Amino acid sequence: MLRRLHSVPGLVAGLVVAFMAITGAVLSLQPVLDRFSIPSTTNSINVAALSEIVSTKRGGVERLVRSASGAVTAYYDTGKGTAAASIDPATGAVLGDYSPSPFFAFFSELHRSFFLGMNGRVVSGISALAMVVLAASGLFLLIRRLGGWRRVLVAAKGTTSQRLHVELSRMAIVGLVISGLTGAYMSLTSFGLINAGAAVSTFPSTVDGGAPAAIGSLAALQTVPLADLRELRFPFPSDPTDVFTLTTASGQGYVDQATGRLLNFTPNSVGQSIYETLYMLHTGQGLWWFGAILGMAALCVPALAATGGIIWWLRRRRQPRIANNSRHSHADTVILVGSEGNSTWGFADTLHQALTAQGFLVHTGAMNEHAANYPSAKRLLLLTSTYGDGAAPASANRFLARLAHFKPPADLSFAVLGFGDRSFSDYCRFADVTAAALSEAGLAQLLPVATVDRQSAQAFARWGQALGAKLGNPLALEHVAAPPRTQSLVLAARTDFGIEVQAPIAVLRFELPEAPQGHWWQSWIIGRGLSFEPGDLVGIMPPGSSVPRYYSVASASTDGALEICVRKQVGGLCSEFLHGLQPGDRVDGFVKANPGFRPRTGKAPIVLIGAGTGIAPLAGFVRHNDRHRQMHLYFGGRDPDSDFLYRPFFGEALGDGRLTRLVTAFSRLVGGRYVQDRIREDAAAIRALVTKGAQIIVCGGRQMAAGVADELNFALGPLGETVASLKADGRYLEDVY
Ligand SMILES: Cc1cc2nc3c(=O)[nH]c(=O)nc-3n(C[C@H](O)[C@H](O)[C@H](O)COP(=O)(O)O)c2cc1C
After folding, report:
1. What is the CB < 6 Å shell around ligand 1?
2. Model pLDDT for residues 31-90, shown as the tens digit of each residue
3. Which residue has the CA at smallest separation from atom 1 of ligand 1?
4. CA 732 to chain centre
5. Comparing C-alpha atoms, which of 548, 582, 604, 554 is closest to residue 735?
6. Which whole-number Å values give the CA distances from 325 to 332, 343, 463, in the listed order?
7. Cα–Cα dist 98/367, whole Å
8. Over the stretch 436-486, which tens digit does the pLDDT of each residue have?
9. Which pairing describes strands 444-445 and 487-497: parallel, antiparallel, or unpaired?
């Protein structure tokens, strides 16, 4: 519901709201310009003195108006009509003729009514309300996505548009809620739907009627500081029974021009005070810096609308239509999907089609559509991702509540496959929660909970084998996310390591393909050639398979080559294929961005820990450390004479300051060490770095990463930090395979 509320009005109102926001941002400049162009009123005179000076300088003054930003304007009768002059609020001197800025007048009318009169005002009021709905629903989604309001400031993850959307929302959301609420309130008051309660006094029944006193001597005006003045209307000349009409920040009344007494003063109602405050907050008139902040928040709206539109479009595009979907009441196998970004739906579709091909009657639906019973079902297969702080993804957030009403048939069993990302502290937690809840509901467990890290097609295929074994039919799950647009990469050079220690590793450098020719807008949408940074992934399609194998990239596209490190796995289709390549040979590949795996910006030190081919992205980070921030690298191999990858490069980087310290561990030397042993020996140094805000980046095999995490937990204990707490803060990144 919340998502629908956020996306439907978001898409419909996005354009109008973005338009309103841009015009509002332009208008927020006015108070800022006024602030620097209007003379300061620190030594301001009172209203009596100012009026006296102005009326001696200009005859026929009809009224003095002070705007919220402090500008004073005198309107006077020239004999041929009314003219206006700008007045120095500090001295009363006439600064020149006053004419309102046509630029701001234009934008003001555009913002209020789109030049469409009453209809435009209605649209403008509704778009203010739409802004509130979008900002409020966005705030709740943001909190849910990040795992609770306490985590609202942690680093955002996801695709570029998702992260941009989160970052911009965080910056702008408070300002947008204030702009929207105040704008909606002002619209409602302008349509008379809310009473702004402006003070209106009754005209005094008796006035002195004697000869007018000098304005500067009128006691009631002497007591009003200029900062409180809104408007002073002068009495009609030569009518001693007329009075000054005084409107101040606190109310409205009259001043006898002969005695200077204040007559019939009516204080502002609470409604008027509220209106004035909200008007000030909305326009920044009288609070220029606040207006500037709101203006900047408003400038985020077009970018939010664009990134929000991209997220919505990608979600729609990736949600597959499941072919051959049986009714849930007929199905013998039910697949329920928990997904936020929709990638899990693709895996569910692959599973659905594979089971259908084997003759099962399969129903696939969202976990939130979990039915009260499945009369024909024998097995329930749940595929779910995890979001936020181990929480349910969007299509599963009502599942646990629905489970309370579930009446499972006695012979129904279940299996849960979790989709997640090991760099999160609550890796696939919702899959565990789901399995526990189903066991509690009395279902038998068909398979232990398994997990798929970063949408690994291989891990999914392994789970398929285990499921097939249980079903008595081999199940080959070949999942290809969306057919990737591959490019042909030509091997330019290779360097071999590790032959002597029975762990062959090849560092492969591929030439970048030629950038496609086309219009600027085509390259803007589809990108110009391959673009990547160290830590991104290249998917290689080995001949005879449609399932890509991913490798971490050690170079950036600006280096002019794509470099990877590949360990030869016995029987590994792709690694054996890559190890068989010679310069000039071609492979089909594509790049997958991995923006969550790179050093944070800033000056804090970076600790890089890797073993074997895990060194590839870390070497890339060192290579691009042009600002020479502190980088401490821990590298593990077998033998320095055989598999010390990037040895000459690291020597060079230590020399030119891109690498601060290199600590190596080789397991096949006498008294051999693993990289985790070095972490233990270096605990004090690592603690000192973490105290300085260091980020730790680990890449390599699962066993190595687990050992490193244990040692770090131990080392960081005295600081009250753990790997989990650093992960939650975005200060511990892992790329583990
Ligand atoms: C904002 C965000 C939060 C995430 N939180 C977690 C998490 O707490 N635990 C986890 O294992 N994976 C987490 N992930 C990773 C996703 O679960 C993983 O990418 C999954 O494959 C996404 O599947 P989906 O596209 O079907 O939602 C998170 C991803 C994002 C973008």
Report:
1. 145, 157-158, 339-344, 385-388, 390, 393, 419-421, 424, 426-428, 455
2. 888 877 776 655 568 999 999 999 998 889 999 999 877 889 999 998 888 899 999 888
3. 157
4. 20
5. 554
6. 12, 18, 22
7. 66
8. 999 999 999 999 999 999 888 889 999 999 999 999 989 999 887 766 778
9. unpaired
